[in-house]
Structures are given as structure tokens and as C-alpha cells.
Specification:
- With 77 residues, the chain is mainly alpha-helical.
- The protein has a single domain, classed as 434 Repressor (Amino-terminal Domain).
- It contains five helices and no strands.
- Helix 3 crosses helix 5.
- The protein is globular, with a radius of gyration of 11 Å.
- The two termini are 19 Å apart.
- 26% of the residues are buried.
- The mean pLDDT is 93.
Length: 77
């Protein structure tokens, strides 16, 4: 696992899962959080560290409490 991917864990995985589970569009969530779709993809792909202020903005964009983004990721399989 790359350093960045490890540093973003479990937040990036939880953001991605919440977007998919709630039928949200990544582009819309990114825009509401002040990010580009590419920046969000880079966070998911382990190419960019997610900043603290971005975690708050992403939680707000998904209308989710910040605390759920720090819970251990629930992986299927």
C-alpha cells in the first residue's frame, strides 16, 4: 500500500462508499466540497492526501457527520 493511500485510510474509502451507497455523483460531491473531479479521483487513487478542511467540506457535501468518515471501512468480501 502506498504511503498516501495509507494516510487517507479509512476516510477516502468511506467517502467513496457513501457516494456509491447514496447514489451521489462524484462530480457533484467534489464541486460542493470545492474540489475538482480529478482531485477527488486522486484522493481515491492514493495520489493525493486529503486535507482536514477537505474532509469537513466533503462530509458537508454528502450531508454526513464527519465522524462516520473516520470509522473503520466496511469492505465487502
Amino acid at each position: 500500500m502506498s504511503y498516501i493511500k495509507e494516510a487517507n485510510s479509512p476516510v477516502a474509502e468511506n467517502i467513496k462508499m457513501r457516494i456509491e451507497a447514496n447514489g451521489l455523483k462524484k462530480k457533484t460531491v467534489a464541486a460542493k466540497a470545492g474540489l475538482t473531479q480529478n482531485e477527488l479521483a486522486d484522493i481515491f487513487g492514493g495520489r493525493r492526501i486529503v486535507k482536514a478542511r477537505e474532509i469537513l467540506a466533503l462530509a458537508e457535501a454528502m450531508e454526513a457527520p464527519v465522524s462516520v468518515l473516520f470509522e473503520p471501512a466496511q469492505r465487502n468480501g
